[in-house]
Structure formats: structure tokens, C-alpha cells
Amino acid sequence: MSTDRPGRSRIPELSNIPWEGPRAITDYAKVGRALARDLGEEFNLGADELYAVLIRSFKGNPVLALLGAPDVRLRARRVVRRLQRAAELQKGAGVELVKFHAQFRKEFVDVLPQAKPEKRSEFRWDDV
């Protein structure tokens, strides 16, 4: 996998968290949620900026005067709507990370006092 292109490698904020115990899963969920929130906000801001740029770039264009300027606004809204949907999906990713953490606690942490795993495990269960 090439690391010279953005988006083609692992996300360091997440990949540098070692899976050593429940605290690592909590950290992973928190960092992932923050990244999803930041990415969603960036998509929202980008959508607003892009709409303004698309409208402004075609102002006064003689070809568009023949075709109708409102068409540019409609087309720009269609394009920007996709970016807004991507922002909404990032909100959903943040919610899923919260559910991921809650599910882990329900399935493993809450039952730990009754069933401790074997000692040879690298996963430190006492790190709650």
C-alpha cells in the first residue's frame, strides 16, 4: 500500500492505539468519534464553500445566460447535497463508535468478574 497519497494508509491517531486492554478500546472509540465529528464538520464547511464557488464561477457567463442561471443553482445544490450526505454519514459513524464501545462493555467488561480469560492472553483485562 502506498503512503505517499492521502487516504491510502491507516489513520495514525487510530492505528497507534495498541489493543492491550479495555482502556485501549475506550480510547479507540473516543478518538474515532472525534475524527468522524471533525470529518463531518469539514464536509459541511466544504459544502457551503463549494456552493458559493460554483455559483460565483458562472456569474455573467454568456452561455449560461442562454441556458438560464437558475439551472446553475440547481446543479450546484445537487452536487453539494452529496457532500452534505457524506457529512451526515460521518455523524452516523460517530454514533456507531459509541455503540461499538457500549457493546464491548456489555459483552466483555460486564461479565469479567465471572469469567476471567487465561493468563497467557496479551489483552490486559484488568485495565478498565
Map the helices and strands:
Blueprint: H1 12-15, H2 22-57, H3 62-67, H4 70-107
Helix pairs in contact: 2-4
Key traits:
mainly alpha
Overview of the structural elements:
The protein is mainly alpha-helical and about 130 residues long. It is about 65% helix and about 0% strand. It has four helices and no strands. The longest helix has about 40 residues, at about 70-105. The model has no long low-confidence stretch (mean pLDDT about 85).
Give the count of helical stretches: 4
N/C terminus separation? 35 Å
The percentage helix is: 55-70%
Give the strand tally. Answer: 0
Radius of gyration: 23 Å
Low-confidence stretches: none
* Mean pLDDT over the residues: 83
Question: What portion of the residues fall into strands of 2 or more residues?
Answer: under 5%
**Anisotropy-based shape:** elongated
How would you spell out the order of helices and strands? HHHH
Structural class by helix and strand composition: mainly alpha
Main sheet makeup? none
Summarize the structure.
The chain contains four helices and no strands.
